[in-house]
Amino acid sequence: MSAAQRPSDLIYDWNVATRPAARPAKPIEFDDETLRDGLQSPSANDPDLDAKMDLVRRMAALGITTADVGLPGAGPRARHHIETLVRMIQSEKLPIGANVACRTVVTDIQPAAELVQKTGFPLEVCAFIGSSPIRQYAEGWELKTMLENVRAAISFCRKEKLSCMFVTEDTTRAHPDTIRALYHAAIEEGARRICVCDTCGHVTPDGVRALLGYVKQIVKETGHDVKIDWHGHRDRGLGVANCIAAIEAGADRIHATALGVGERAGNAEMDLLLVNLKLLGWIDQDLRPLRGYVDAASKAIGIPVPHNYPVFGDDAFETGTGVHASAVVKAFRMGDAWLANRVYSGVPADDFGLEQKIGIGPMSGKSNVQWVLEKRGVAPTDELVKRLLDRAKGSTRLLTDAEIDEVCRGASA
What we know:
Elements: E1 29-32, H1 49-61, E2 66-68, H2 76-91, E3 97-103, H3 106-119, E4 124-130, H4 133-139, H5 143-159, E5 163-169, H6 176-189, E6 193-198, H7 205-222, E7 227-232, H8 239-248, E8 253-256, H9 270-280, H10 290-301, E9 318-319, H11 322-333, H12 337-340, E10 357-358, H13 366-375, H14 382-393, H15 401-412
Parallel strand pairs: 1-2, 1-8, 2-3, 3-4, 4-5, 5-6, 6-7, 7-8, 9-10
Helix pairs in contact: 1-2, 1-10, 5-6, 6-7, 7-8, 11-13, 14-15
């Protein structure tokens, strides 16, 4: 079926039934935290330089704005990797910026200043401090001392002509008065970007909107042009949903990691965030290279992609259920790939360089088997279809390629 012949109202979108998903007025910026916060996952390996360089190239190809390339205060290896990545971005003229994370301590920021002097690259310093009362209680911090440290750190960045973002950890559990005091101090000393953090994955989308509304008011009070970042974790499974809420609430840049890797349950998933924003119509970039980014990150950090991971897991676009497979097969037989990629999928596989797959298992019907055989170039005779169905009905899972081949060979013999 051609696009002209296909009905135009095949999908009713309840996502925009009562409130249109208006495209943000300003371009969305992205900060990829895979090579810093992502590596703080207890299960992640710290990749070698070649793998890190490959990942940064892939980030740039996806239109990601900046990459957090490490903690310069972590030691010589970290600083060597940061310098190499920065020089690669320079020499290859990659369309991506770079930043590093530092505590609001001058001795942490000094190595970053030295790297900037050495390379001439405008490395952004992300100076962070805990802001919640529970963190202050555990650490024995007083707000007066915290403010002194913030002013000293941001003032040092200003004197060294370093681009600086001030980061409040655990903002989503911090008292409004503390948030106001910290941001005022940082902005007065010269910070022109601040980062609101859901460090413990505590907040819900309603909380994101309330908090960012409050932070925007603080920025307005200062009279300065200050950009706002959102950095969220997914301890409650709300990482991507909170990122979307943050964009709606006016955040300028969103932080995330490949596969959602990071401390504890991890960060918001960069790959799934990009998928959702593409489906919302909020970004335009070609996301067909996204699978390569996911696979490269998985290999580099040693964390496999779960089979049921949305979009990029092995099971994401495969079905062995007879009713579902029948609908997909009918669409393919109509010559309508658009329909086949949507009739039983909320994410069109072809938009991301992927495809629908049909398997044979205990819940399969004849249409599954016939389609699989035809795709393999094998005539779907009644006898062969019956043999495969009998084998599948006696199985507890989808048949493997080897098992399908075995049945086909047996029928041929």
